[in-house]
Design a protein that fits this description.
globular, alpha/beta, 11 helices, single chain
Length: 268
């Protein structure tokens, strides 16, 4: 392999983004993963392939089919501006069915947030990391009316749609790109959400979970892990993820609540 120049990394990013699944992924995320793969592989072609594999593990696997954001933007414009409206809530549930992470939680999403956040007083600020479409759960979250909500992910089309969602309902929200494999947001918030995020990030960086839990400027963090794979297999996953979480927080003077739901294990 030739020296890893900025031009070579840029070419890798261009080639990776030629794949439809990867076209909207943050360039900085692709470049960071790609640079590491270039250092390990004997050719650019191999590095492109393994970079796509990593990106599939941390994000693309949750989106089997292209999500029709352009159509959703148009449909959203014609909906009422009330999050409590029945038509609005049905539309948001329909949206969430197209992303595996939120789709898996749809049967329990109302009780999930009520139970996990019940011990918190009025929540005025939220940071939703590797958010997916989770911010669309806002009508079912016990948040203060003046709550500020920052959502970040690696998909530009997703964060663009979430910003439209915030704006339509006059939510004090910001949706933007962030690469958690390289940086930790510095927002000071009451609540940070790391929902089914740590296992994905640790596919790229084994230390990502520990680094995030220690580095976030949040009074409280809601962390969750999947209780089964995307293919539906669940053997030993709850026990393994609980053991891993206990390793991540070992020695920390934190108060921890545990919650187990069908399909998801959570810790506050």
């Amino acid at each position: 392999m030739n020296p890893i120049t900025p031009e070579l990394v840029a070419e890798l990013v261009r080639l990776v983004r030629q794949g439809e699944k990867y076209a909207a992924i943050d360039e900085n995320t692709i470049a960071a993963i790609g640079k590491a793969e270039l250092a390990k592989r004997s050719s650019l072609k191999e590095a492109v392939k393994t970079t796509r594999n990593k990106l599939h593990q941390i994000g693309a696997s949750y989106q089997e089919k292209p999500i029709p954001y352009a159509a959703w933007h148009l449909q959203l414009k014609n909906l009422p501006h009330d999050l409590n409206d029945r038509e609005v809530q049905e539309f948001l549930r329909m949206n969430m069915r197209l992303h595996a992470s939120t789709s898996e939680r749809l049967n329990i999403h109302e009780t999930f947030f009520k139970q996990t956040l019940a011990s918190l007083s009025s929540i005025h600020s939220v940071l939703d990391l590797a958010c997916g479409l989770n911010p669309l759960n806002l009508p079912w979250m016990p948040l203060a009316e003046d709550c500020t909500y920052r959502a970040c992910d690696i998909y530009s089309d997703m964060t663009g749609y979430l910003q439209t969602f915030f704006d339509h309902f006059t939510i004090s929200g910001k949706a933007d790109l962030c690469d958690l494999t390289n940086t930790i947001p510095t927002d000071k918030v009451q609540l940070a959400l790391l929902l089914k995020t740590i296992p994905c990030l640790e596919q790229v960086d084994k230390s990502a979970g520990k680094r995030l839990l220690e580095g976030l400027h949040a009074d409280t963090i809601l962390v969750s892990f999947p209780a089964h794979s995307l293919g539906g297999r669940s053997k030993g996953m709850v026990q393994n993820y609980e053991a891993h979480f206990n390793e991540l927080v070992e020695g920390k003077p934190w108060q921890i609540e545990r919650f187990e739901f069908p399909g998801e294990l959570a810790f506050l």
